[in-house]
Request: fold
Amino acid sequence: MTFEIGDTANLQSASQKTSIQSSEQRNRGLIWAIVAGLVGWMFIALVVAFMARAAWDDLAVGVQSTASTVSRVLAEYSDQMLISADLVRQQAGRIVGDAGPLVVDRSAYEELRKIIDISPDLVSVWIGDAEGQAVLTTREFPAPDLSGSARDYYLSIRDDPDHLYVGNLIDNRYPAEALLINTSRRLSDPNGDMRGFVQVSIDPAPIRELFRKVNIGFDSSLWWIGPVGRPLIREPFLPAAELDESAPPRFDNSTEASFDGSVSRPAFYGISGVDGEERLFFWSDAPIYGSRIIIGVSYDAMVKRLTMQMVPTVALGSAVGLSLTVILWLLYRARSKGLNYAAHLESKVRERTRELDRSVEQKDLILQELEHRVRNAFSTILALTRQMMRSSDTLEAFRREFPARLQALANTHLMLVGAQSRGVASIADLAQTALAPYDIPPTQIVITGPPVELSSERALGVGLILHELVTNSVKYGSLSADGGLVSVQWDIEAGDVHLLWREAGGPPVNGPEKQGSGTGIIDRAVAMFGGSIDRRFDPGGVEVDIIIPLR
Reply:
C-alpha cells in the first residue's frame, strides 16, 4: 500500500481538522468533569448535612428526655422533703402544746432532738414566739437570745396562717444554716391567733448528690426554685448570696422551645447568669408544693459533642469527594490522552503507510539474518551435545544435565531477540539471566562493570559460561550457603573484556579430581569466541578470570 504525491495536501488538511476536533472534545470533557465534580460535592454536602441534622435531633431528644426525667424526679423528691418538714412541724406543734404558753423545757428539747435524729434530710428545728423571739431549738438548750422579727421567714407568715416560707438564711449565727433550705410556718391557737412559728432546716445535699450521679453531661447545672420563685440552690455550688442575681431567666409554663421547635416537655433558651453561656433549660414543677427543678444544658457543649461525632462522617465525606474528584480527573486525563493518542496514531498510520514499501524491502535481509542465526544455534546445540556425550559418564547424567544447559542457551537467544533484534546483549543482562532461575537474595549478588554489549557469538558463549558457574555455585559453592557471596565484575583493557567471577562465604573449596562435563562446556564456549580462561580454586572461594576479545 502506497500514497501518491498528490495526496499530500489532503493528508495535511485532514491532520489539521483532526487536531481541531480533538481540542474541542478535550474542552467539552473538561467542562463535563468540572460540572460532575461540583454536583458530586453538592450531593456529598447534602448527605453530610442531613446526617448532621439527624445526629443533632437524636442528641437533642436524648438530652431533653434525660434532663426532663431528672428534673421531674428531683421535683418529686423536693416535695417529699417539704412534706417531711411539715410533718416535723406538726410534731413540734404537739410538743410545745396546742394552746397557752409554749412548752420549751428540756423534755421538749429532747423530744425534738429525737425527731431530727431519725430524719435524714432535716438538720434543725427552731421555734419562736408570736413576737419572733427564739424560744426552743435543736441546735442548743436553752435557746440563744435571737429574734427573727425582721426576717422573711417570720414576716411572710405572720399574717397568713396557711403560708409556707421556703428560702435561705444568708446572715446567720450558725454558718452551716446558710447552706441549708429554711422552711417556716405559723403556729396558731384554736381561735386562729398566732402563738408563734416553727422553722425546719432542710439539707439539699441528697438532691445535689442525685444530680451528680446522673451525670447528664454537657456542662449541665441544677437549680431548685422555691414555690414563690426564689432560687434555693444551684449545682455546681453557688453561694446563697449570689443565687438571686445568677438565677435562670424568668419564664412560665407557656414558654416552650427546643432545637427543632417542638417538644414534649417545657424547655427554654436563655443566657446563664453564672457564666454567660447560652443554655437550654428544662424544668418540672413539684405537684404538691410547686417548687421548680430546672436543668440547664450548655448549648456549646452539645455543639462540641456533635462536632466530635460528625468528624468521622465529614472525613468520610471528604474522602469520597476527593476520590470522586480524582476519578473524574483521571477520566478526563484518560480521555484527553486517548484523543491525543488517536491523533498521534492517525499521524503515525499515515507515516507508517509511507514507510511500508521500504519495510517490505528489508524482508529479504531479515530472512537472511534469521537463517544465519538458526544455523549458528543448531551448530551450537550439536557441539554441546557432542561435548556432553563425550564427558558424561552415564546416560542418566546426560539426561539430567543436558536440558539445563540447553535452557541456558535458549535463554541467551531469547535475550538477544529481546534486544530489538540487534544480535547483541550486555554482560549485565547475561549475568541476570543466568541467576534468575534460582531466586537468589540480592544481598548475595554483586554485579558491577561498565556497559558492554557482546555480539551474538560472544553472548552465546558467555551465557553458557555464566550458566555453568552459577549452577556449580548453587550446588557446591558460595550460593549453597546462606551467607555466601558471588561477585561478577568486568572491565575493558586493551580492547578486551576482563571478566572476574569470585565466590566467598561458601564451603571450603577443593580442586576437582577430574574434569567434568561442565568444565568441558566452559572450555568449548571460551574457544567459541576466541578467548581465554583462568580458574583458581582457593579454599575461601572459586575465582575465574575470563578474557573476552571484542574484535
Observations:
- The domain at 363-549 is CATH 3.30.565.10 (Heat Shock Protein 90).
- The chain has two domains: 14-345, 363-549.
- The chain has a mean pLDDT of 80.
- The two ends are 42 Å apart (CA to CA).
